């Protein structure tokens, strides 16, 4: 037994857009920060081990050159010359374990201020996580952080627990992708998991390109300064930084664009078409540099890409994504395909408990639209019910909240994969301990 009230477990959900971390038993994560990492390659400039007080810690890579890694919204919000912003996770797969370490370091040591040796760790993982990814995570946690115990839980299962169900169909729409996974009695049915590369970041890019085609450019916060000419009157002065990397510029633009998306976008009630949405009233939005832009049909067109990926081809500048759009399927089709791959006996139950989770799923009207489309396309006998927490925070963090509930249960405490078991059986044992 590791549990009990004295030692609280730490729950970490590292998504492709945001990392959420906090204590089990609490109702929201303590630390939420972007899961991208700023990296500056330094050719033999300074001593590799100098920790920077802002970024948590600094790793050096295996090769000759060293790189400095910046983690957390504060460290990333500060523009540095030649800083590349790199994703830690691409399509649900970790691209660089050094960066994952720096993110875990930041979460545990800078945000939660805990010593990992004293807390069991519950890590959320994608429903289709590969065996070597799981073993690598277990190895890192036991070897580098010396955690007393570990558990890897699937995102879909945690979302299911967060809403108090053992069987459900989880539609998890996050930053990097949208995954649909049926959960039965607390286990993910692997053969029926479907996923699509269209997630929040993809929609944000659609919105940026759509606005640019209308001549509305989003200026990143570092590219201007506001100067007071008369009391209460400001003038915006552009500043030019030639050394800024393209990836940092895009990262800064995406922060603003995703705020626009969250504020004004909503899923349309009917499939989007140019003619019926052309004379829709405009919604104003004030950009950080003081200019107010008017957003019309794009408010509905961008979210509708989730339901109809072929819309991407009508957005100027998104031509490079045309092949993604051609292969991706809309949400309702994916839900029905996933349910049809499951056993006949549980299909009915899955139709009546479809759970929405993830940041993109908290978009207005998404639940109503998905329910409406599924009613039209599903078999007559099925009673379709799409459930989503009324609270946007809960929808965004449902995976984390499920982990928090699970790790604080008394009956869960004998499930941990302990350090002694790891030393005895090795990392491969994680497959048996964490189904």
UniProtKB/TrEMBL annotation:
Q: Mind telling me which SUPFAM superfamilies this protein's record contains? A: Actin-like ATPase domain (SSF53067)
Q: Name one GO biological process term.
A: chromatin organization
GO CC annotations on file: cytoplasm; nucleus
Residues covered by region (Disordered): 41-64
Per UniProt, the keywords (alphabetical) are: Chromatin regulator, Cytoplasm, Developmental protein, Nucleus
Q: Report the locations given in the UniProt record.
A: Cytoplasm; Nucleus
Principal subcellular localisation of the protein = cytoplasm
**CDD domains, alphabetized:** ASKHA_NBD_Arp4_ACTL6-like (cd13395)
Biological function? Involved in several developmental processes including organization of plant organs, flowering time, anther development, flower senescence and fertility, probably by regulating the chromatin structure.
Q: What is this protein called?
A: Actin-related protein 4
Q: Which organism is it from?
A: Daucus carota subsp. sativus (Carrot)
């Amino acid at each position: 037994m590791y549990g009990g009230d004295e030692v609280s477990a730490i729950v970490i959900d590292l998504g492709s857009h945001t990392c959420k971390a906090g204590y089990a038993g609490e109702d929201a994560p303590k630390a939420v920060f972007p899961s991208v990492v700023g990296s500056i390659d330094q050719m033999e400039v300074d001593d590799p081990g100098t920790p920077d007080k802002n970024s948590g810690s600094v790793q050096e890579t295996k090769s000759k050159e060293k790189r400095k890694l910046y983690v957390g919204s504060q460290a990333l919000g500060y523009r540095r010359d030649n800083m590349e912003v790199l994703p830690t996770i691409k399509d649900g797969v970790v691209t660089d374990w050094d960066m994952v370490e720096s993110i875990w370091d930041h979460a545990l040591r800078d945000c939660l201020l805990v010593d990992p040796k004293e807390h069991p760790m519950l890590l959320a993982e994608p429903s289709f996580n590969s065996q070597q990814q799981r073993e690598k995570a277990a190895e890192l946690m036991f070897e580098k952080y010396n955690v007393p115990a570990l558990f890897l839980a699937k995102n879909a299962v945690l979302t299911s627990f967060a809403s108090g169900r053992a069987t459900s169909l989880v539609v998890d729409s996050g930053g990097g992708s949208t995954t649909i996974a049926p959960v039965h009695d607390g286990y993910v049915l692997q053969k029926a998991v479907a996923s699509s590369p269209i997630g929040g970041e993809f929609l944000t890019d659609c919105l940026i390109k759509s606005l640019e085609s209308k001549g509305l450019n989003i200026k990143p916060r570092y590219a201007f300064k506001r100067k007071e000419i008369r009391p209460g009157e400001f003038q915006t002065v552009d500043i030019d930084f030639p050394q800024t990397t393209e990836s940092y510029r895009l990262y800064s633009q995406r922060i603003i664009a995703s705020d626009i998306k969250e504020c004004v976008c909503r899923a349309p009630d009917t499939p989007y078409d140019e003619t019926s949405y052309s004379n829709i009233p405009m919604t104003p939005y004030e950009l950080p540099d003081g200019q107010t832009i008017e957003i019309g049909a794009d408010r509905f067109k961008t979210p509708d890409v989730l339901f109809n990926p072929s819309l991407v081809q009508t957005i100027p500048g998104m031509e490079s994504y045309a092949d993604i759009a051609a292969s991706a399927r809309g949400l309702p089709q994916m839900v029905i395909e996933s349910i049809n791959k499951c056993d006949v006996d549980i299909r009915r139950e899955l139709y009546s408990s479809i759970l929405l989770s993830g940041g993109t799923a908290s978009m207005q009207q998404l639940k109503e639209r998905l329910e409406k489309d599924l009613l039209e396309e599903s078999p007559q006998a099925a009673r379709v019910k799409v459930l989503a927490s009324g609270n946007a925070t809960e929808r965004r963090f449902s995976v984390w909240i499920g982990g928090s509930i699970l790790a604080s249960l008394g009956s869960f405490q004998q499930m941990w994969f302990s350090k002694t078991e790891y030393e005895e059986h090795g990392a491969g044992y994680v497959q048996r301990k964490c189904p």
